[in-house]
Amino acid sequence: MKEILTHKIVKLNADTLTPIRIFHQLSGQKKFLLESSVKHEQKGNYSFIGADPYEELIGVGNTTMIINHDSDKKSTVEQHALEYLKEAFQQIELDIPLPFYGGAVGYIGYDTIRSFEDIGEEKTDDLSMPDIHLMIYRSIFVYDHKKEVIYLIAINQDEQSEEVLLKRLRSMQETLQRNLPYQEEKETTFSFQPEISEEKFKEKVRTAKHHILRGDIFQVVLSQRMKADMNGSPIQFYRQLRKANPSPYMFYIDFDEYLVLGASPESLIQTSGQTIITNPIAGTRPRGETKEEDEQLIQDLLSDEKEIAEHRMLVDLSRNDLGSVCEIGSITIPTYMQIEKYQHVMHIVSEVKGRLKEACSSIDALISCLPAGTVSGAPKIRAMQIINDLEETKRGVYAGGIGYINFNNDLNIALAIRSLVVKDNQAYLQAGAGIVYDSDPEREFQETLHKAKSLMEVSQYDAVNR
Fold first, then answer.
1. pTM, 2 dp
2. Cα separation of 119 and 273, whole Å?
3. Average pLDDT over residues 341-370
4. Domain boundary assignment for the chain
5. CATH 3.30.450.40 fits 3-178+189-456, yes or no
6. Going by fewer Cβ within 10 Å, which terminus of the chain is more open, N or C?
């Protein structure tokens, strides 16, 4: 029998507040901010802000640590974090007409796939971060940009009284009324340095091409990681990023020991009820200096046989990913090979849509899609094995997913690209390129730089000693 949660909602006028302002005024710990640029209205009109989760799930392999902040207790179960969450949320019944009103926020790392597929021996985990880190919130702010209102949502948990809900809502209202002075901080800058040399990356491309020519794979996505000393405020850097590179999926999540921020153009998976959507992106060009140059680059991209073949392959891979969890005959491609423009690059984008089988949950669909073909390759498992052989360290957050899983099991997970991990006063950035049989190593190296440019330019990237 499902547990029916109760809730309280207060709606306020938002004309004097912004999501960044609300985030700044929150006094709690483990704060998050999930946004979508108003320039990408088709991706959503909401920002979500919260702090002080009541529970955390930290997954390493098939072991999950559960931290309950209400009781200040920790426990460990021999169960995968996603399976644990699926069971927990299946016991909840709650319906609020907003895309997200409470639940899990955090990341599902690329290396999560090791629990479900054999991709080789574990790589060096030099950042010492878990495979999965999700924080569960029962009180959040929802900022509706279209209606210019803010929803304050408090959800009943563990049979809390109505007075407890009202007390939490009063505290949330006081947060908005605090009117803390906001001091403008100096721009935050880093000097990123690749962790491997340009020649070493090119050698990895040549090795990948050898696998392709042997018939092991059709395509593989190789990435390189860059590192910088953290100078300044991460939230200030995020503010610079959201202004310089507005994107459909923008995020800032502070886990205390580390934080993740970014502006991703791509959805890993989105579900609403039984509907599931993925948006494969493959095919990249830098933006032109003029409108005419932009148009010329678009035509060049759409006439590039290598880019088109790669995109078609990854659309097919998305269809295959959905095939195991969707009803037969329900998978369609509503959008095929359209150009989406961003501040520094343009991409070819498609949409693959299906209807979940009654026996499958949204988390089953998430597992089926991990990792996206656009950051692994095809065939996916063999490509991941080759990535495991060629890359130096665990990918961690990079190429996994970042976003939310609602109490009603709907989820919206962005692909963890164009993202930054900050830990121990170090910032880490990673970007990849799709390698096929006729790839040019120099061009693929440059593609990783183009993809990272949205973050590197904000941080005044320095290519010395690359």
1. 0.93
2. 32
3. 93
4. 3-178+189-456
5. no
6. N
